[in-house]
Amino acid sequence: MRIFAQITLLLVMMFSMTGCWNQTELNEIGLISAIGIDRSGDRWIVSYQLINPSAISSGAGGAGKAGGSEAPIHVFSSTGPTLREAIDVSYTESARRLYFPHTDILVLGQQATEKGISEIMDFYWRNTYMRETVNVLVTNGQASELLKQLVPTERLPGAAIANILEKTDQFNGNYPSTKMYELAISLDSESQAAGVPQIELVGGPEAKVDSVDQLHKTSTRGKLKITGLSVFDKERRIGTLTRSESFGISWLTDKVSISTLSIPCPESNTEKEQFSFQSASAKTKVTPHKTANGYQMRVSVKVKGTISESHCHSNLTSLPILHAAQKEIEKVIKDYMEQGWEAAKRLKVDLPHFADKIHRKYPKDWQKLKDRWEEEEMQSLQLVLEVDATISQTGMSQTSFRETGALSRPLLISLVRAQKGKAAYEPIHSSYRVSMLSGSF
Question: Range of 423's domain?
Answer without folding.
Answer: 403-436
